[in-house]
Amino acid sequence: MKQILVCMLAGAAMMAPMTAAPGSTGPALDSEAVSAARLLSFGRWFTDAHGRVVMLRGGNVVQLVGDAHRLGPGGGDGRWQDATPGLMAAAGFNAVRLAIFMDRVAPTPGRIDQAYLDAVAATIAAYKRHGIATLIDFHQDEFGPSVGIRGMPKWMTLTDGLKRNPALQFPNGYFKDPAVQRAFDNFWANRSTASGKGVQDAYIEAVAAVARRFRGEAAVFGIDLMNEPATGTPCSRPDPVSADCPELEQKLLAPFYRKAAAAVAAAAPHLILFFEPFMLQGALGIAIDTPIPSIGRSGLSFHNYGPFRPTREKVSEGALAVALRRRAALINTEWGFSNDAADIASQARDFDARLIPWLAWARGPFEGLVNPAVQKDPPANRSLVLRAYARPYPERTAGTPLALTFDADKAVLDYRWSTTGPDGLSRAGLATEIRMPSPSFPRGYDIHVVGGKVISARDAALLGIVANPGASEVRVIATGRAVLAPLAPPRPIARAGLSVDSLLSDLLRDPASKAVLARHLPTLVSSKEIGLAPQISLRSMQPYLPEMSDEVLQQIDRELATLPHRP
Among residues 389, 368, 366, which one has the least CA distance to residue 377? Predict the structure, then answer.
C-alpha cells in the first residue's frame, strides 16, 4: 500500500516531507480546544472564530457529576467517573451530546431545579477541561416516565385519564399505547396544565431557562430542543407508507419550532438551537422537510438508525438537502447502537462520504466505550467497537472539506479540501488540524501531502497541515504503521443467549439465527416495518407480523436455543 501511495503522488508538483518541526516556516499549529471558544456556523458547516470548518465527533452521554440522574428516572447504567472525560479526549472525541430530562429540570410547575442544573454545569465543565464541547439535549423516550420511559414530568403529561400499558416494550409505546399518543396529542395542541399555562408554552419556558443558565458558557455550542418528537395519534404506524404525513411537519412542528426559536434567541442569542424531524423519519427513510425557523442561529439534528444501507443513505441525503436548503448547521446526533464493529465502520463511512459531523449512540453507555469501569458488563469486543468509532477526522479545515475516506482495517486516511472557505474567502494561511486517534493509529502513521506541508510533530495526535503558496486544494494521505485486527472477526463475537427477546438487528446479523427466522417468518427480512430493528426485539415485532403467532414464536425460541454458542 505504501508503494502504491508513493507512485500515485509522485507526479504532484509539491510533496511535503514526512514531518516538519512545529517551528518551521509558516503559521503555527493552533490547537485550541473546540470547547475553549464558542462554535459558530455558516450554512451547513460549524466554524471557528477564524472561519475554519469544524468537524465534531463524539457520543451521547447521560452520567452527571454527583450522579444526579440516579436520583430520578432517566439514569444511566453506571455512576459518574472522573476519568471519563480525559479518556474520551484521549480516544480523539471532541464533543458530547449530554441528555437532560425535563422532569428533573422542571419537576413542578413554575420551578426550575437549580441543583440539577448545577450538576449539569459541573459535567459540562469536566468535559470542557479536556477540550470537549457539549450539546445539551432535552431527551424524551415515549414522552415521560408516567406513560413511557423518561423525559417529561407528570404535570406536563396530559393523557385525559388514559393509563400506560406496561406490557409494551420500547419503542412500541409510540405506536400502540394510547396514553403515550394522547400525551403527544395534547402537547401539540398546547393544552393547559395545572399551572394554567399550555404544556408547550411551559416546556419552552423551561428550555429558555436552561439557555439563559448556559448562555455564557462557550463550551455549550447548542441546545437540542426535543429528542425524537413523535406525531401522537396520527401517522404512528412504523412503516414508510402510513407514517409519511408531510402535512404534520407544518401543522405540528412549525408553530412549536417558531415559538421555541424566538424564546431561545432572546435568552441566549449565541447558542445554536437544533431542531429534529419526527422520530420515524430517521428510521424508515421517509422524506423530511423539517420546518427550521430562520430566527436566530439554527441547526438540524437528525438520527439514522436504518438497518439497511439504502435506507440510511436516503435518510442522510434527505437531512443534508434540508440543511442546505434551510442554511442550517447539520449534525447527526444518534446512530450506531451496535456491538458489530464492522457495521459501525460501514455506517461511519457513509457519514464521511457526506462530511456529516456526528455524535453516536452506543449499545450501552457511550462512556463505557472509553471507560469500562462505568459499565457492569462491557462487551467482549469493546476495543474493536471503540476503534470503529475512533476514526481520524478533520477537526478544523482551513477552507472547505471536499472528500474524506478512511479504511478502518488498513488505517488509511485520505482527505482533500479547498483552501477557500464556505464564505468564499481564502483560508490558505491557516492550519488544517486532523485528529489521529490512537485506537486507529496505535503505532503512529506515515504522511504524504499534495499542495501543502506538515507543521506538527511526528505521530502527533493532532496532525497539522498548511497549504503551499498558491495552492487551491490540499490532499493528505496518512497510513498507520500497525497491523490491525480485522473489525469483522472470522466468527461472530457472541451468539450465546439469542432468543425471541433479543434485538432484531442481532438476530438478522448472525447467519444462523437469520436462517431460523427465514424458515418461519419468510416475509420478515423484506418487511418495511423493521426500520427500528437496532432497538426493537423480535417479540416486539409480533403486532406487525400476523404470521408470528405465539406458537411460531415459541418454535423460533426453541430453535435459537439449540444454536451452538460462540465466544
Answer: 368
DSSP element (H, E) containing 183:
helix 178-188
pTM (global) more than 0.70: yes
Per the CB < 8 A criterion, the answer to whether 327 and 296 are in contact is no
Residue with grid cell 413542578, as numbered in its chain? 108
CA distances from 22 to 28, 273, 381, 460, 462 (A): 7, 37, 37, 11, 12
Q: What is the largest CA-CA distance in the chain?
A: 75
Share of the chain above pLDDT 70, in %: 90
pLDDT of residue 71: 56
Residue 106 has pLDDT above 60, yes or no: yes
Domain segments of the chain as ranges: 2-30+398-480, 40-390, 504-562
pLDDT of residue 20: 38
* CB-CB neighbours of 8 under 10 Å: 12
98 — pLDDT class (breaks 50, 70, 90): very high
Residue 366, C-alpha cell as written in the block: 457511550
Neighbouring C-alpha atoms within 13 Å toward the C-beta of 207? 32
Checking if the pLDDT of 74 tops 90, the result is no
Q: Say if residues 455 and 27 touch (Cβ distance below 8 Å).
A: yes
Q: For the packed helices 511-520 and 550-562, what is the interaxial angle rounded to 10 degrees?
A: 150
What are the residues whose beta carbons fall under 8 Å from the beta carbon of 537, sequence distance 6 or more?
169, 500, 501, 502, 503, 504
107: closest CA among 156, 51, 164, 50? Answer: 156
Pick the CATH number of 2-30+398-480 from 3.30.450, 2.60.40, 1.10.238, 1.10.3470: 2.60.40
17 — pLDDT class (breaks 50, 70, 90): very low
Distinct helix (H) and strand (E) counts, the chain: 17, 19
23-37, 246-260, 412-426, 446-460, range with the lowest pLDDT? 23-37
Q: What is the dihedral of CA 538, 540, 542, 548, to 10 degrees?
A: 20
pLDDT band, residue 391 (cuts 50/70/90)? very high
Amino acid at 503: L
By DSSP bridging, strand 358-360 and strand 57-61 are parallel
Are 535 and 170 in contact by the 8 Å Cβ rule? The answer is yes
Do residues 424 and 525 touch, judged by C-beta distance below 8 A?
no
Place of cell 471519563: 84
Q: How far is CA 102 from CA 125, 152, 160, 220, 225, in A?
A: 21, 5, 20, 18, 11
Looking at the predicted structure, is the pLDDT value of residue 339 above 90? no
pLDDT(13) > 50: no
For 40-390, CATH number out of 3.40.718.10, 3.20.20.80, 3.20.20.60, 3.40.50.300 equals 3.20.20.80
Tell me what the mean pLDDT of segment 101-130 comes to.
Answer: 97
Q: What's the rounded mean pLDDT across residues 459-473?
A: 98
